[in-house]
């Protein structure tokens, strides 16, 4: 269930290169929207040449910090950021204060989203009560109240027994588990990827095997219980190799990668900038290449920002003291376009598919399409426009971007979500 | 040129080889002043050196304090306990508060990596990192270079085995970089669980057996902390086994090899008392070197032409 505040459905005409990889569409033309529905998709000469219109993006992994940390993000500010980033749907994580682990908490969030959300927003609920990893949440009631998936993101389920039970029981809720894979005994005291850079800096290591081991465990349990799983923010070569093998073995698995893991490596941590600290951490060039290969071959079917706002004062501390997480909604497309598409690593069509249809399918949401009769979920991009990422340019309440100061190529010009223009640059 | 053109000494990476050698030369000149009856020099009169210490430290703090005083600078020491830090003040706010006194140098010791970098971003003063977590402790490395150079007369080609808990040691990291900077050859020796993976990429060899120290000029012993054996850490099974495998004993040394230790020593654990007290030990020399090297660092930072009022020429008769 996706909810947002009510508004008038818009009518508009967009002339641009129309790119909808799901339909094999890539041609100049005109998209006509009337009262929120696509009424015509016609080939023709477009101008200017740098504009492209595509199905709007879907983010399966966002932290809206509500309830509890509205100083960092609210449903209103987070969805404004999403609109500016080209998103027509986002999915919020449940690691809030309180945790979204009961139907009343979830219902109150859905209620607030109906009043505040600019962009259709979905919610997930916790796997375990309080995300303590001990007792299961009431998944059936939570699913009925709108939970799209269950996840202990941020506080991964350590117990194999509880994970097995969660997989098994999630069948009655009819929703998948979204798993943050991390073996906590291997990451204790860690602050960055364990490798040559951590050895030199002395920062506690967060080894890739901590992720891969849990990916292997959870895929084995998913195969055993014959349940689908969605793996969050993969960062390591071993993890995507495991996903590839599991899929060949018949496991229904979808997987995310985040823009920062696809574009950057642990070499950047030498600056000790707390805005480069996230969980999982930036890894090596070999891992980054593995993620890009997996994005290309579909092993990774979703780009997820893992948008994680943090208050300024909490990031303005020594690296080890800083919390994990970076923002991403407003920079995801531009970063991936700049560092992957323009560098020739990933075709534009593949990126657009992994930012829209891929995540929609993974979480069972309607797939945005540019076709007559469909609700208009469109993003208009200027592929040549250059801009510099600045603190004062964000709609998000937080500015902990890993890209501050970066010069990016590609902007979102307009976003249409569920038939409404939610962003117009 | 002097360090002042670089403003801060946050890590060995802030130094060129020429910088390092100049500091060592200055330290040598200053050392002669310590033999005089009146040991105070007027070089930094009117300058303010603030020591900001968030970690307990005896030798580093006393060494910096005395170094500043011997150069006639005013000093002020703030410790984390009994200060506004206790009341939850952030490191940046503390740095900004201190900056209001216009200090010339802020010396920072902090348990977290990057703390000195953060202070440097908040103040106009020159910042000296006196140890940030497991990251860097550049003045320790410089004093170790000074000690080795005074003892052997050279640094180029000198082989130094650093033995023990490298994983948790800022001393080891700084020293490896410093030795590389001056053309010496670092070797890291310790249990595999306490040697960080891929540390060789810093440009050093590694070994897990004490056999490897047979051919080195200097054996540099790291402090072994008992918390490394606690449940949940378990880097090595026991101090007993650690000492059996890696303790620096007379039997493991060959004549002519020098032994160093950054202190404080655990006698009978990482270093045999007979070694600590032998003629091969440079441990007390290191402490004395610490004073003159820190004097040299302060002097170098504060005597950049153009940046500050010219300091009186260093005259050591």
Describe this protein with a few key phrases.
heterodimer; A: 425 residues; alpha/beta; TIM Barrel; 7-stranded mixed β-sheet; 4-stranded parallel β-sheet; B: 317 residues; Rossmann fold; 2 domains; 5-stranded parallel β-sheet; 9 helices; 9 strands; 14% strand; globular
Q: How many strand elements of chain B?
A: 9
Mean pLDDT of chain A: 97
CATH top level class name of the largest domain in chain B: Alpha Beta
CATH architecture classification of chain A: Alpha-Beta Barrel
CATH superfamily of the largest domain in chain B: Aspartate/ornithine carbamoyltransferase
CATH class of chain A: Alpha Beta
Helical segment count of chain A: 14
Helix amount of chain A, in percent?
Answer: 25-40%
What's the CATH topology label of the largest domain in chain B? Answer: Rossmann fold
Describe the protein:
The complex is a heterodimer of chains A (425) and B (317). Chain A is 31% helix and 23% strand. Chain A has 425 residues and is α/β, with parallel strands linked by helices. Chain A has a single domain (56-371), classed as Metal-dependent hydrolases (TIM Barrel, Alpha-Beta Barrel), CATH 3.20.20. In chain A, helix 4 packs across helix 7 (208-225) and helix 7 runs parallel beside helix 8. The model of chain A has no long low-confidence stretch (mean pLDDT 97). Chain B has 317 residues and is α/β, with parallel strands linked by helices. Chain B folds into two domains: 3-137 and 287-301, 3-Layer(aba) Sandwich (Rossmann fold); 138-284, Aspartate/ornithine carbamoyltransferase (Rossmann fold), CATH 3.40.50.1370. Helix content of chain B is 33%, strand content 14%. Chain B has nine helices and nine strands. Chain B has helices spanning 17-33, 59-70, 91-99, 115-122, 138-152, 170-181, 239-246, 273-276, 283-301; strands at 48-53, 74-79, 105-110, 126-132, 159-163, 185-189, 205-207, 218-221, 258-260. In chain B, strands 7-6-5-8-9 form a five-stranded parallel beta sheet, covered by helices on one side. A four-stranded parallel beta sheet of chain B has the order 2-1-3-4, sandwiched between helices. In chain B, helix 4 links the parallel strand 3 and strand 4. In chain B, helix 1 (17-33) crosses helix 5, helix 5 (138-152) crosses helix 6 (170-181) and helix 5 crosses helix 9 (283-301). Chain B is globular, with a radius of gyration of 19 Å. Chain B starts with 16 loop residues before the first helix and ends in a 16-residue tail after the last helix. The relative contact order of chain B is 0.17. Mean pLDDT of chain B is 90; it is low at 305-312. The A-B interface holds A 188, 191, 194-196, 198-205, 272, 313, 316-321 and B 90-92, 110, 112-115, 117-118, 132-136, 168-170, 173, 196-199, 201-202, 232.
